[in-house]
Amino acid sequence: MAGKSTMDRFIQKNPLAVMTRCIAQSLMGAKLDEVFEQNRSQQYDDTIKFSTVAISMAEIALGTVKNRYQAYRKYKDQLQTSAVAYYGKLNRTEPAISEAVVRYSAEQAAALQAHLDFQVWDVLPGYRCFSLDGNHLQKTQKRLKETRGLCAAPLPGTVVGRFDHQTGLFDQAYLLEDGHAQEATVLDRVLDDLAAKDLVIADRHFCIVQFLLKLAARCGFFVIRQHGRLKGKLLGKRKYVGQIDSGTVYEQALEISDGEQTLVVRRVTVELDEPTRDGDREIHVLSNVPVEDADAATLAQLYRDRWEIENAFYLLTMTLNCETPANCYPRCALFQFCMAMFAYNSRQVLLAALYAEHEQEAVEAMSQYQVALDIVSPMDGMLTAIPEQEWKALTPRRADGIAKFLRNVSRHVDVPS
C-alpha cells in the first residue's frame, strides 16, 4: 500500500510531526462543533463550521501557516465562504467559546495521558495544586478604526491561565476583552471553579484579602506571595525554620482581615542568597495549609513551583504563535491565544508519549525550540503526501489505539543520550 510506505518514511524521518498530527486530529474534529454549540450565546455555525475555523487557527498557533489569510487560503474549500465572512467569524468568536476550547483540550489531553500510563505529579499529597498567572496581549501593528486617533495603542485583551500541576496542562482560561483590566477581575470566577482541598499558587498580583478569605471559607487553600499593600497584623515571634537551596526560611503567624472577617495565616519568609530580578532580598509567602500537611520549607518550594506556569507562557510565546502583530480584534486575538493553549496541551501529550519510551532526563534535555522546528518544517509535505482520507485509514480512532500508535512512533525520536 503506497500510503503506508509513505507513512513509514515519515515515521522514520519526522516522527515528531507524525505524532503531532495524530494528537491534533484526535483532539480536533466534529467534537469541537459540540463544544461550540454548548457554549455559544449569539453565534451560529450554519454556514461556517466552528471545527474548521478552530483547525485553521490551530495551524497559526503551531506555525504551519503565518496568518489568517494563509489559513483561509488553505481551508477555503472546507470553509466554503468568502474571506470576509471567515474573518468576521473569527472576530466575533465569543470568549466563552474560546475558554471552553481550552477546557475541552485539557480533558482530552488528560485522557490520552492516562492511556500513555503518564504518572501525574503528586505535588502535595492530598491536594490538587494549580497555578494562576495573567498575560496582557501586546499592542498590535493594526488598529481598529475607532482607536486610530489615539497616541497610546490599546491592548487586544487579557488572559488569565490556570495551570494544573498534576498533569502539566492549561485546564482553564479566563478571558477579558479589556486588555488593560487587572487579572484580579476574574477571581470570583476562579473561585467558582475550585473545590475543597484545591490549592492555588500565585504571585502577589493575586494577593487580595477578599480572595484569600473567600477561598479559605470554601475549604480551599493557597500559597501566594504577599503584596506590599497587604500589611496585616504579625502575631508572635518569627521562628527560624532552616535552609533551602535559595536561602534561609523563617515562619510567623499573620492576621489578615476585611471588616469583620479575619483569618490567621502562615507567613513564610525566605531571605534569598541572591536577589530577585526586581532586587528583592527577601520574599514573604502567605498560606493557610496546615503545618501537619506541609512545613514552611515545603511551602517555600511550592511557591517556587510557580515557575512552571511562567515557563508554559514562555513556550507559548517562543515556540507557538499565541499572538500575531496584525491581529487587533480582541475576540479573535483571545481565540488565537486559546488555540495556542490548545496546541500547548497537545504538546504535553507528545511529551507523555516520549516519557513512555525514553528516560525522563533525556526527554527534558530536548530543545523545545528544535522540537517546534521538527514539527513545523515537514508538516506541509506530510499533509500533501498523505491526504486526510489516507491518514484516517492509517491511524487509529480509539484512545487506546492512539496511545499505542504514539508509543510506537516515539521510539523513532532521537533524544539526547
Number of strands: 9
- Radius of gyration (Å): 23 Å
The helix content, as a percent range, equals 40-55%
Low-confidence stretches: none
Side by side, the strands of the main sheet go: 3-2-1-4-5-9-8-7-6
Shape: globular
**What is the terminal separation in angstroms?**
35 Å
% residues in beta strands? 15-25%
Put simply, the count of helices is 18
SSE string, helix = H, strand = E?
HHHHHHHHEEEHEHEEEEEHHHHHHHH
Structure description:
It is a single chain. The protein is α+β, with helices and mostly antiparallel strands and about 425 residues long. The protein is built from 18 helices and nine strands. A nine-stranded mixed beta sheet has the order 3-2-1-4-5-9-8-7-6. Strand 4, helix 10 and strand 5 form a beta-alpha-beta unit. Helix 4 (about 50-60) crosses helix 13 (about 330-355). The protein is globular and about 75 Å long. It starts with a helix and ends in a 7-residue tail after the last helix. The model has no long low-confidence stretch (mean pLDDT about 90).
